[in-house]
Amino acid sequence: MSGNSFGKIFKISTWGESHGAGLGVVVEGCPAGLPIKESEIQKELDRRRTGQSKVTTTRKEGDRIKILSGVFEGKTLGTPIALAVENEDADSSKYELIKDLYRPGHADYTYDMKFGFRDHRGGGRSSARETVGRVAAGAIAKKLLARKKVRITGYTRQIGPLVAQTFDFGEIEKNIIRCPDKKMAEKMIDHIMDARKKGDSVGGIVELVVEGVPAGWGEPVFDRLDADLAKAMMSLPAVKGVEFGAGFGAALMLGSECNDVFIKKGRKITTRTNNAGGVLGGISNGADIVLRLVVKPTSSINREQDTVTRKGKAAKIRVEGRHDPCICPRAVPIAEAMAALTLADHYLRQQVSRLDT
Amino acid sequence: MSGNSFGKIFKISTWGESHGAGLGVVVEGCPAGLPIKESEIQKELDRRRTGQSKVTTTRKEGDRIKILSGVFEGKTLGTPIALAVENEDADSSKYELIKDLYRPGHADYTYDMKFGFRDHRGGGRSSARETVGRVAAGAIAKKLLARKKVRITGYTRQIGPLVAQTFDFGEIEKNIIRCPDKKMAEKMIDHIMDARKKGDSVGGIVELVVEGVPAGWGEPVFDRLDADLAKAMMSLPAVKGVEFGAGFGAALMLGSECNDVFIKKGRKITTRTNNAGGVLGGISNGADIVLRLVVKPTSSINREQDTVTRKGKAAKIRVEGRHDPCICPRAVPIAEAMAALTLADHYLRQQVSRLDT
Amino acid sequence: MSGNSFGKIFKISTWGESHGAGLGVVVEGCPAGLPIKESEIQKELDRRRTGQSKVTTTRKEGDRIKILSGVFEGKTLGTPIALAVENEDADSSKYELIKDLYRPGHADYTYDMKFGFRDHRGGGRSSARETVGRVAAGAIAKKLLARKKVRITGYTRQIGPLVAQTFDFGEIEKNIIRCPDKKMAEKMIDHIMDARKKGDSVGGIVELVVEGVPAGWGEPVFDRLDADLAKAMMSLPAVKGVEFGAGFGAALMLGSECNDVFIKKGRKITTRTNNAGGVLGGISNGADIVLRLVVKPTSSINREQDTVTRKGKAAKIRVEGRHDPCICPRAVPIAEAMAALTLADHYLRQQVSRLDT
Amino acid sequence: MSGNSFGKIFKISTWGESHGAGLGVVVEGCPAGLPIKESEIQKELDRRRTGQSKVTTTRKEGDRIKILSGVFEGKTLGTPIALAVENEDADSSKYELIKDLYRPGHADYTYDMKFGFRDHRGGGRSSARETVGRVAAGAIAKKLLARKKVRITGYTRQIGPLVAQTFDFGEIEKNIIRCPDKKMAEKMIDHIMDARKKGDSVGGIVELVVEGVPAGWGEPVFDRLDADLAKAMMSLPAVKGVEFGAGFGAALMLGSECNDVFIKKGRKITTRTNNAGGVLGGISNGADIVLRLVVKPTSSINREQDTVTRKGKAAKIRVEGRHDPCICPRAVPIAEAMAALTLADHYLRQQVSRLDT
C-alpha cells in the first residue's frame, strides 16, 4: 500500500535511506529449490556500483551483500530471502548546508509535501541508492529466468543526440557507457565529459532486449506484460518515458505497416516484423521484448540555480556532492533488474493461468 | 492476481467479453457519502460509445449503464458499486469465418498461447469493449476528484504527422477527432478518411493534462504517481508508449535545461518550467500533470494480410468487421478514465501517509 | 482494501445489498479450461436458498444464477467470471418502520458508525443475502478441487445442548437441519420449533470435514491454511468462533496426548490421531481437515427488546420480518463454499511454491 | 502471496529462520511523523524473550533490536521501517541428530512436503523465533494506537483445567505465567512444573481485552475486524482455535439471551452486555473487544514418541532441546502484537472509508 513492494507472486519489498544504517530487500515468493550464491548477487551489484569510472559518482560503496535468510545449503527455502548491504561512505556534511533548500529536479520538495518532513541526507529514501535492493533481488530473478532460457540485455542506446548505430552485445560491458556501438561509445563519453566540465549533466535512452520469453506471459487486462514493465521502468529515478517496439514512432505508421504479420519459421509461429516489441494484447508473443526508457539528465549539477527555501523564500543553490554526470550506464543494470523482477513474476503467474492437464 | 483489477484503495475489477452477455465493473473502496447518479456515469460512457461519427466503428451499442449496488438514496454506501451494461449489437457471424486465423496486431494468438483456447467472437476479452467498465468506474473517480478541484482533460495531440498547434480546451469536444486545434482537427479527419478509403488505419498521440492535483500524491518507490499512470495508460489496448513532461525529449537536454527551478508565485511554491510533467520523485509537485500516450494504428484493416491458422498453416486474412480507422478520439475518454482511477486511488492513499495531526 | 474481496490467486469480489437490484460476484484467477455449467452453480445456491423448510425464513428468492462472462463453450476462459442473481422478493416495507431503530445483534449501528449512513432495507450489505455470491463462486472452487479429489462435507454438529452422536454423511442432506445423526436431527428440529414459538432463536455448531487435501497446502507464516480458513469462517455472519482438530479441548491436554505421532500406512506417511485437524505449522499434513464454527442464535427475534434510536433515544423494538429461527442448516453450504474458496486458492498457491523440476 | 506479509495499509513482512543469521521485519505503511524509539520496541521484545523464567526455554537470546531504516530524528519517515535482531545462541548440534526424523506436532513433515526440503535447524522458518519480527512491529502499532487511546491487554486465562477467577490487570506482569489472578497463577505454575518433570507439556487459553476502540473499525464483508483478528491469532504457532465474546458458549444461548441490547450511557450509545465481544457485523461497536485463543501444549517433549524418518521408516524420537513447557506466558505479548497490528491496519483503513466532510 505504501508503495515499497513490487510484484504479486515473485515480490520484493525494499527498505533503506541513502545515509541510514544500510539498505536491503526482502524477496517473497521465490520458489523453493533455486540454487543461488552470494557471489551471483554480488556480481550484479558490482555492475551498478558507484565509483566505477569517470562517468559515475565518486562515492565509494563496497555494497557487500549479505543473505540473511531464505537460503539453506545453497538453495532457496521457499521462505523470505532477506538481503542487505551496509552504508559505508555516507558523508552527510555537504547535505547539512542545503537541508533547508529544495534542489531542483529532486524530490526534496515533494517528500516534504507528502510526509511533512524528510531525511535530507543524500536525498534519503528518494536516492538512487534505494535501487541496491532492486538489483540484488533482480539477480535472483535472473537466476530463475535463466532456467527458462530467458536472457535480458540492457545498454545505452542514446546519449544526447548520439545514437548507437551498431548493436554488438559483446561490446556492452567493455566500455564505461555500456553502449553496444564501440565507436559511438567513445563519442558519448566525450559528450558527457564536456558537460561535466561545465558542471552540467546529460540525458539519454536505455534499451532493453529480452530474448527467450515464450508466448503466453502477461495478465490482461491491467497487468499486461508491457504495462507492468512500463511501471517497473517508470519506478526508476529519472525515467520520464517508456516505449515498446515501434513506440512513439507508431503514431506515424499506417496499420498495414505497423501490423506484424504472422509467419511460420520451421515449426514455430512467429512474426515477420517486431513493431509490437514482443507483446500483443498484453501477452508475450514469443518475439524479443524490446523496450526503451528515457533517462533525464542528472538533477544534481554543479551550477548555480534558482530555488526556494523550505519556508518559501527565494534562494540560490549549487549542488556540490558526488554525482553521476549521466545516469545511463548505471541505469542499465538497474533496468535489467526491474525487467527480471517483472518477468519472474509473470512467469510464475502464468503457471496458474490454465489447468495443468 | 489474474490481472483484472486496478488500484489499491480505490479499486476496480472489470469483467466481460465483447460478444458475451454484457460487461461491467465492480468498484471497491469508494468512500461512503459521495453523490453519484446513473446519468453522470452515462455521460462518460456516451463519450466513448461507438457509432458516433465517421471516424469510429459503426457497431451500435446503447451502453445503458445500470447501478446494481453500492448506491443508496443517491449516495455511495461505502460498499462495492456494481455497474453493468448489456451487449446488444454483438454480431458474431463475421468472426465465425476467421476463428481459426490469427489476426495480425491482435491478441488472438497470444490468448490462445496463454489460456489454451479463447472466445474468438469480437476478440473476446481482448476487445476494447472491455473498457466500458473502466469508463463507467472512471466517472465515479472523476466525481471524487472534482471535490478536490482536480480536472482531467484529454485530447488528440497528433494524428500521423499532423500535430496540434493550438490548445483551446473548449474546442476538444466540438470536433469528432477531439483535437484542441480546430483547424488541425479538419486536416486530421481528412487524413483518417484517406486511410480508411484504402482499407487502412492511422496512429496518433493522445495527451492528458491534469490540473489541480496538490503536491504530495504518489507512493514511492514503486507506486510512483507517474509509474502508476504509465501502467494505467499502457494497460489500454493499442498503446505502445507513454511519456511525462519533456518525455523522450529529455534525452537531448542538459541538466541545466531540464531542471525545473523552484519559484514563489504569490504564497505558493511552484516551478518556472514543467519538464517534469508535474511529478518529482514519483510524487506530484503541484504543477499540471502532463503525459502523452502513443496509440498504434487500428490492427483491424480491410486489406489482405499474411497470417497463419491456429494449426500453423500459412494463410491470408482480411478483417471486414466494423472498426475505428483511428483509435485516438475514443481513446481520449478512456485514457481520462484511467487517469481518474489512478489519481483517485493515490488521493486516498495520501490520506493515510502521515499522521492526522 | 475495502474488504469485499477474498483470496489471492483464486479471488472473489462480492457485491450487492439485500434489497437492491441484485447480488453477485466476480471470480478472478480460476484457471482456463475448467468445465462449468450454470446448473452446477445453481445446485449449490439451491442448498442455501431461503424458504426451504420450517426452520428457515419464508422469504422466497428463486436465486436464478446467470453466468455473465468468463465461460465459453462450457469452459472457463481464464478471464473474470461474473455471476449474478436478481432480488425478487425484497419487501422493504417492514423495514421502513424500524429504520431509525438499531436492531440488537445486528450491524445497523456499526454500519452507521462506519459509513455515516446505511441502506436500512433488510440490513443492506450486512444481510446474509450477500453470501449468495460466495456460494455461487464456491461452486466453481468445488469443481476445481474435485479434479484433485478434494471433498468438503459440512453439517450441523450441535444445536443448543444437542450434539450429534453418529456421523453418517449420507444422512446430512436428508433432514432439514443437515445433521448426520438422523435421530438427533429430529430432536434438534423440535428444539428449534419450540424456540420459534416463543419468538426466540437458537445457536449451534457447524462442523466441516475436508477429505483428500494432500500434504503441502498452506503458506506460512501468516497465510497458514488454518488461519485463512479461520478468517473465511469468521467472515460469515453470526459466527463467533472457530477451532481445528482438538480445538479448545487442547487446553486440557498434555503434549504427550495432543501430539499426533507419525506412522506408516501402506506407503503413505500419516498420523495415528488427528488432534491437529489436518494442519501442522499452517500446512496441510494429508489428514482430514476438521474444523468447527459456532453460530450464534439469529439476532432477529419476534420479542420486544430494548434499544435506542439513531438519535440515541431509548426505545423498544420487535423484529417482525421473515427470519430463520436457527442459522445452522443454511450456514452449512455457505461454510462449505468458504472452505472451497480458501482451499482452491491455496491449491493454486502451492503450484508456485517450489520449482517444477 | 507467499504468506509472509500481514496487513493491507499497515503491513509487515517478516523474514528469518531460527538458526540463520538473524530475524527481522519490514513495516510498510506506518504514517509519517510517529515518534518511536528503539527502547520502546526493545521493551516489547524483552517481554517475549526466552530464558525469562522456569516456565520458559533456556535458550538465551539478547534479541537486541536495531532500527535500520524509516526513522529519522526519532520519528517515522513514512518510508519502510526495517527492524532486525541477530541470532546469538543458536545451537544446531542437537538438531543434527534428528534432522531425518519428523518431530510429532511440528512442521518438519509439512515443510518437507511443501517445499521439497527444509532448514531442519531449530525448525527453521516454522520456529516461534519468527515472531520476534511480529513483536517488534507490534510495538510500533501499539504506539500508533496509543494516540487513539487504544489499549491491548493480554493474559493467561487458563492452564490445563485451571481457570483465572479474578482479573486484576495490574497482576499480570508480576507473575511468570502472566495470569491476572495471583493465586491461580501459583497453581498454574505448579501444574506446569509437574508436567515438565515428567518431560511433558501443557496447554492453555490466552485472553485479550482491547479497550478504547471506537465504533466503526472493520471492513465487511471479508475483512471483518473479528475475521482479521481471528486470522492474526491463528497465524501464531500452536494456536488451534479462537473465539469472541460469548464464543462457543453462544451455541447454548437463545437469541433473547445472546443479543446485546443497546442502551444510553451518558451521551454514548453502548450495549448492556458484551456477548458480541465488541464486534457486530464485522465492525467494532465501541465495547471492549474480547477474544480468546487456545494454545496447544508444546510439541517438543522430552519423552519417547513414535515417528517416521524422512524416508518413511518407523522410528522413535525424544526431543531434547530447550523448550517452553507451556507456551501461554510468551504467547501473551505475541498475541498482543498481532492484535495491535490488526487494529492499526483497520484504524488506517477506516480513515478512507467515508468522505472527510
Write the layout of secondary structure elements.
Four copies of one chain form a homotetramer.
Chain A: E1 5-6, E2 11-16, E3 22-28, H1 38-48, E4 66-67, E5 71-72, E6 75-76, E7 81-86, H2 93-97, H3 108-115, H4 131-146, E8 151-159, E9 162-163, H5 182-197, E10 204-211, H6 225-234, E11 239-244, H7 255-258, E12 262-265, E13 268-271, E14 279-280, E15 283-284, E16 289-295, E17 305-308, E18 314-317, H8 328-351
Antiparallel strand pairs in A: 1-2, 2-3, 3-7, 4-7, 5-6, 8-9, 8-10, 10-16, 11-16, 12-13, 14-15, 17-18
Helix pairs in contact in A: 1-4, 1-8, 4-8, 6-8
Could you write a compact summary of the structure shown?
In chain A, 26% of the residues lie in helices and 22% in strands. Chain A is α+β, with helices and mostly antiparallel strands and 357 residues long. In chain A, helix 1 packs across helix 4.
Describe the structure.
The structure is a homotetramer of 357-residue chains. By secondary structure, chain A is α+β, with helices and mostly antiparallel strands. Chain A has a single domain (5-351), classed as Chorismate synthase, AroC fold (4-Layer Sandwich), CATH 3.60.150.10. The first copy, chain A, is built from 8 helices and 18 strands. Chain A has helices at residues 38-48, 93-97, 108-115, 131-146, 182-197, 225-234, 255-258, 328-351, and strands at residues 5-6, 11-16, 22-28, 66-67, 71-72, 75-76, 81-86, 151-159, 162-163, 204-211, 239-244, 262-265, 268-271, 279-280, 283-284, 289-295, 305-308, 314-317. In chain A, helix 1 (38-48) packs across helix 4 (131-146) and helix 4 crosses helix 8 (328-351). The two termini of chain A are 36 Å apart. The mean pLDDT of chain A is 95. At the A-B interface, strand 1, helix 3, helix 6, strand 11 and helix 7 of A face strand 1, helix 3, helix 6, strand 11 and helix 7 of B.
